Amino acid sequence: MSPHAIIAPKAGGPEVFEYVSTERPVPGTGQLLVKVAAAGVNFIETYQRSGVYRVRYPFTPGSECAGTVEAVGPGVSGFAPGDKVATAEGSATYADYTLLDADKALPIADGVSLEEAGALPLQGMTAHYLINDSYSVKPGDTVLTYAGAGGVGLLLIQLLKLRGATVITTTSTEEKAALARAAGADHVLAYEEVPDRVREITQGRGVEVVYDGIGKDTFENSLKSLKTRGTLVLFGGASGQVPPFDLQRLNAHGSLTVTRPKLADFLLDPEERRWRSAELFDLVAQGKLHVRIGASFPLSEAGAAHTALESRATTGKVILVP
Ligand code: NDP
């Protein structure tokens, strides 16, 4: 059977996805041909599919996967057919086969399954740079983050607890609240309880840092939850993008810092990639970090996976399995 891939011929809803026959790609200089075992589904692909982020159509989504190296292109060293690799920085990973730049391939630690390896790198390395670099979390800090049962959310909570922080999060349902608590969250609130309950929990002070991946609906309350000189890390817009903002308000609210980071700027070279991914894979292998795969869809049902993610129906990670 010829290999298959998902394409979006134009911008639109999840129904634009088509499952089509393709040629098996041939690796160019510095590239690996990877047989995909699991492709991670991420929010960014919904923005690309719908046209919120500009891409060229026809478009095959996907930047995250894990799989087996089938062939190596000219000039590749350090990888051979049969190796298991993962990536957060591939392209067109919603496919049976994908081409991957060898310097963006991550070795997978023993004890980590290909499903876990396809589910972890993008959201895991995001959580890693958020707590280490966007704001460096210290033991004893109190942190607010939203969507505590989501993909980034569950990983973030676990990493924050390993760091010794107190974690406040929100979820939209009681089932999701139970998952966030099981991951270690100290306080699980409804969205409408922010910022008042956050102020109560922190005896009026506010939190050191808010990690906000929801954007439009939460941004104002994130500002109101911070302590003087606190940091708001706006890392996504699951509810929509935040409109233009008057910088003078940072002064009025207590000399606040706002940053709007993206993962690519925290994976600048192979050393940085290896550092972040090795720490995460090692934590999984040691049983200290749990990767929850909340839903696994056949590759041909990528549209259903997007519908589930956009309608808040998912918990943890969503993967596609060819
Ligand atoms: P999640 O698994 O967290 O899914 C999104 C969750 O957001 C939902 O499950 C829902 O949880 C919550 N939510 C609140 N309001 C809405 C809304 N209006 N529509 C949809 N969901 C809503 O997704 P990810 O972990 O993949 O991504 C989380 C965020 O992180 C996204 O904004 C994404 O773009 C961002 N991101 C940013 C990166 C970066 O480097 N800047 C890298 C990776 C991800 P609940 O029902 O509990 O409210």
Automatic annotation (TrEMBL):
InterPro entries from the UniProt entry: ADH-like_C, ADH-like_N, ER, GroES-like_sf, NAD(P)-bd_dom_sf, QOR-like, Quin_OxRdtase/zeta-crystal_CS
This enzyme's EC code(s): 1.6.5.5
Gene Ontology molecular function: any one: quinone reductase (NADPH) activity
PROSITE patterns the UniProt entry points to: QOR_ZETA_CRYSTAL
Endpoints of the signal sequence: none
UniProt xrefs under SUPFAM superfamilies: GroES-like, NAD(P)-binding Rossmann-fold domains
Swiss-Prot/TrEMBL keywords: NADP, Oxidoreductase
Domain Enoyl reductase (ER): 12-320
Protein name (Swiss-Prot/TrEMBL): NADPH2:quinone reductase
Species of the source: Paeniglutamicibacter kerguelensis
